Amino acid sequence: MKYVILLGDGMADFRIDTLGGKTPLQFARTPHMDFLAAKGVLGTADTVPDGYPPGSDVANLSVMGYDPAKYYTGRSPLEAVSMGVELEQEDVAFRCNLVTLSEEGDYAEKTMLDYSADEIDTPESGELIREINTKIGSKNIIFHPGFRFRHLMVWKGGPEGMKLTPPHDISGQVIAEYLPRGEGGDTLLHLMKESYDILSDHRVNLKRSIRGMRPANSVWFWGKGKKPFLPSFYEKYNLTGAVISAVDLIKGIGICAGLDIIKVENVTGTVETNSRGKVKAALDALAEGKDFIYVHVEAPDAASHRGETETKIKAIELVDEMLGQLLEGLEQFESYRLMLLPDHPTPLSIMTHTDKPVPFAIYTSGQDSKNANGVYDEETAEKSGLAFPDGYKLMDYFISGRKA
User: Fold this and answer.
1) Which of 403, 320, 335, 401 shows the shortest CA–CA distance to 366?
2) What is the rounded distance in angstroms from the CA atom of residue 335 to the CA atom of residue 365?
3) Rounded to whole angstroms, how far apart are CA atoms 325 and 79?
4) N or C: less crowded end of the chain, CB within 10 Å?
5) Which conformational region is residue 276 in: left (phi greater than 0), alpha (psi within -120 to 50 degrees), or beta?
6) Any idea of the CA torsion for 398, 399, 400, 404, to the nearest 10 degrees?
7) DSSP for 360-383?
8) For the purposes of burial, counting CB atoms within 10 Å of the CB of 221, is it exposed (0-12), middle (13-18) or buried (19 or more)?
9) Residue 174: phi, psi to the nearest 5?
10) How far is CA 337 from the centre of its chain?
11) Three-state secondary structure call for residue 58
């Protein structure tokens, strides 16, 4: 048996008036998703336990079968693993976004214009982060360049008690009440203010302005945590596997779980990603002997965070195309099981994550359930009656084919 999970990050949503009162999943053209719902098993899973932030870190841990209550230590340490940054036990890692803030004189009065600085590309953002590390880094505070707007800061022996806010949660808002607070917060705020002074007139940003693009004019810290530990996926399920994603967080979870990371050229985390390359890499890995592949698609979530309805629909239809390609390619194997789901909802109306249950559909080769309401969406999944209040138990069900 071959196992594949296709995860459309943030696909689930609320009903939207401009879509005729439908959710984007209901509005988009998704024949392959509907095939899974009609022929397979449909249900919901709570991927974010009570009291935990509804982030992709917590949610993807759940989807991969790991109880966040046992294994979650923060987002950034998982990204550090993917980036090859070694953490000591006393180190605290922070996600360090390059963002666009407005130009008001006082830092606290600025507005979060763009949490991704117009999806700044990796060469430009890398140059900016290296400049930041040279100017305000130290032997205890080190900045590491990452992918596009997503970077890392490690504070050796740093505190953990400060309150931080993800920048994508405050798009269009004045940042004053969301600045770092608590132990160590003053140090982080000082670094953020200094970064604004350094980046505002940097040649990379001056060139971006000439091209009509937003400047990456400040760093923004969030997602703190310490070095994680996960039991291996093979120990849990006796399956060899791999992860395919453009996102360091997802790759970091995979590495911690002992899964291989398959690199695919030109993956971006947007609708322009190399989706066919991802599907081909997944099928090739299965043909070469892997038992399990986790294919993560960031594009729906990215569109939601930017409030772009048309782009989200396009991203969902992209996921559906990938699903169709996977279904066709999986026919070469004697048996397979495929699951489609989001990690969490990212409603366009609020442009950030929620902890609501997510819809899943599972199809096993040769299955023909003949579900009368065979469509894949949030509401049909909820009406199915199959639910996993402990979302991390969904993986056990997916692998075994039966609910404990």
Assistant:
1) 335
2) 6
3) 29
4) C
5) alpha
6) -50
7) EEEEETT-----TT---SHHHHHH
8) buried
9) -65, 135
10) 23
11) helix
Residue 373, pLDDT score:
74
Strand partners, 97: 150, 220
Among residues 166, 153, 157, 221, the alpha carbon closest in space to that of 189 is found at 221
| CA–CA separation, 308 and 296 (whole Å) | 20
Distance between CA atoms of residues 182 and 278, nearest Å: 42
Query: According to the model, what pLDDT value does residue 141 have?
Result: 98
Domain boundaries, the chain: 2-72+229-400, 82-225
**pLDDT at residue number 238:** 98
Predicted TM-score of the model (pTM): 0.86
Token look-up 């120990």 returns: 235
The amino acid present at 46, given as its one-letter code, is D
Predicted confidence at residue 104, as pLDDT, reads 82
Nearest CA-CA partner of 244 in 289, 272, 274: 274
Q: Which of 134, 108, 142, 141 is nearest to 202 (CA)?
A: 134
- Residue where the block lists tokens 């091209």: 211
pLDDT at 190: 98
8-state DSSP, 390: S
Q: How far apart are CA 144 and CA 160, in angstroms?
A: 19
What is the Cα–Cα distance from 246 to 150, expressed in whole angstroms? Answer: 11
Q: Beta strand pairing status for 41-45 and 387-388? A: parallel
Give the Cα separation of 267 and 244 in Å (integer).
10
Name residue 255's amino acid: I
Q: DSSP letter for 111, please.
A: B
Pairing of strands 2-8, 112-114: unpaired
Q: How far apart are CA 125 and CA 123, in angstroms?
A: 6
CA 220 to CA 339: how far, in whole Å? 35
Give the C-alpha separation, 13 to 349, whole Å.
Answer: 9
pLDDT at 404 (0 to 100): 65
Q: To which residue do tokens 């140090």 refer?
A: 187
**Which parts of the chain have pLDDT scores under 50?**
none
H helix runs in 261-349, sequence order: 275-287, 299-305, 309-330
Asked whether 112 and 99 are in contact (CB, 8 A), the reply is yes
> Does the domain spanning 2-72+229-400 belong to CATH 3.40.720.10?
yes
The neighbouring-strand residues paired with 150 are: 97, 147
Nearest to 12 by CA among 260, 404, 345: 345
